[in-house]
Design brief:
By secondary structure, the protein is an alpha+beta fold. Helix content is 31%, strand content 27%.
Length: 469
């Protein structure tokens, strides 16, 4: 994943840019970068943040940045911003993108005479590919539309020019771009939580494929939005920050409604409801309200040092992080029956170890409730997990074992349909492997209703295999 922030101001922008980018830090853990421009001269810095926080890496460099316009990014993939000089002029660019056909595009572009400089992991830098596709246009707008036509996957971007910034949201709106405004300044962000403490008020949200240009004095539309939208449902269930809002729907409100409505269908008798922090908290509060039982903090997250559990690349490190970052409160848990709420089960690493710790802490029953349906299909559009194989998903390992072979699409459809015998067998086997007393997932219908948008405008591919190209 990744998140970006850009600002155009009538004053030096680096302080707002620095803190605005930092408010996207929950979206990525590998690379970060910022660029500003002043009188045609670009200043840029990029750092590896795998073992450090964004602020620590960049704070000592802030006085080196000049200019009233700047962009920055937190990324789980490539080093950015990229600075480009082509027939369209000089610009810097940041992206939140997943390009599934990047190798095919590379060969086609090389055949046309393009060259690429940035390489990592034996592939070119995706942001450099986006910049190259833009450079094929007769102007910036036609170049961005060339990106939308050419790539398979998704791409949202900010383009920094002298005195202005161009924002373009993914063709199907899979990732958001929100504009905030205050006197003498306009900013764009992947996450609306970047605005309040910087005194910005949300003034506009780009639609799918929409292209907008903004300066300190205002913004104007360069290309109108398309009608079709497939915004990622995982924005609400997992990686969106609780105070953020997308398409007018608040993240924590969605999680609360999700939990409350699930609880109304749950007759399990428990002493209290707890969260697997942090992303399970909103759901757990709703669940407690729906069941009319107390909400208590049976597990507390140690926040100063530990990142997200599924981010590390090696299984050994994932298991270590999963164990170390969450601390059971033994005083509250001993001899209790507890419902725990969590955002998802991806590999099962975190839950397996945490459930063992809970029983060792003296808990009587562990009932797990998940705010989204089972993840059966890998994400093809925004790369929210680092899975290298479909069998890293616990659902797919269980299905393969139950079927005795790799399942075909028709079989997967049966397992992904809420309430079928195959679905119930899969959930029961996951429950058994994780050592849970009971396990329930939210249905797609309940999740969509909690989000509050029509299902046709939400991407649910990882749950049901539906896809839009």
């Amino acid at each position: 994943m990744g998140g970006f922030f850009g600002v155009a101001a009538k004053r030096k922008c680096i302080n707002e840019l620095f803190y605005g980018v930092d408010y996207n830090s929950h979206l990525g853990t590998k690379r970060a970068g910022m660029a500003t421009v002043y009188d045609g001269v670009f200043t840029r810095s990029i750092h590896n943040i795998e073992n450090a926080y964004f602020r620590n890496k960049f704070e000592g460099e802030l006085d080196d940045f000049t200019g009233h316009c700047g962009i920055g990014v937190i990324s789980d993939t490539d080093a950015q911003p990229i600075i480009v000089n082509c027939h369209l002029g000089k610009f810097a660019i940041v992206t939140v993108a997943k390009i599934n056909n990047i190798q095919q595009l590379e060969q086609a572009m090389l055949a046309k005479g393009h060259h690429f400089c940035e390489h990592s992991y034996d592939i070119i830098n995706p942001t450099e590919m986006i910049a190259a596709l833009i450079s094929e246009g007769s102007d910036i707008v036609s170049g961005i539309k060339n990106v939308f036509r050419s790539i398979k996957g998704s791409c949202s971007m900010l383009i920094l020019l002298d005195g202005k910034i161009i924002a373009a949201r993914d063709r199907l709106g899979r990732t958001p771009i929100i504009l905030g405004q205050k006197e003498g300044s306009i900013a764009a962000s992947s996450e609306s939580c970047a605005f309040p403490n910087l005194d910005y008020k949300i003034c506009y949200e780009l639609g799918p494929a929409e292209i907008v240009e903004f300066t300190p004095d205002g913004y104007k539309q360069l290309s109108a939005p398309e009608e079709e939208m497939q915004i990622c449902s995982f924005l609400w269930t997992y990686y969106g920050y609780p105070p953020c809002t997308y398409e007018g729907r608040n993240v924590d409100r969605m999680r609360y409604i999700d939990g409350r409505e699930m609880a109304k269908q749950d007759d399990t008798e428990v002493d209290f409801v707890s969260a697997i922090p942090d992303s399970g908290i909103g759901m757990a509060l709703g669940y407690a309200q729906g069941k009319q039982v107390p909400y208590l903090r049976g597990i507390v997250k140690y926040t100063p040092t530990w990142p997200r559990s599924f981010t590390p690349s090696s299984q050994e490190r994932r298991e270590l992080v999963a164990k170390m970052k969450l601390i059971p409160n033994r005083h509250l848990l001993r001899d209790k029956k507890v419902i725990f709420c969590d955002d998802s089960i991806v590999r099962g690493t975190q839950l397996r170890d945490n459930v063992k710790d809970l029983f060792e802490a003296g808990i009587k029953e562990v009932h797990m409730r998940i705010s989204c349906p089972p993840l059966i299909y890998p994400c093809e559009f925004i790369n929210f997990s680092a899975s290298k194989s479909v069998l890293e998903l616990i659902t797919r390992r269980v299905i393969a074992d139950l079927e005795g072979k790799d399942p075909d699409e028709a079989t997967l459809k049966e397992y992904s349909t809420f309430g079928t015998p195959q679905y119930e067998r899969m959930v029961e086997e996951i429950r058994r492997r994780l050592g849970l007393t009971s396990l329930k997932f939210c249905s797609i219908d309940n999740m969509v209703n909690a989000i509050g948008l029509p299902k046709c405008r939400i991407c649910t591919h990882c749950f049901d295999g539906t896809s839009h190209c």
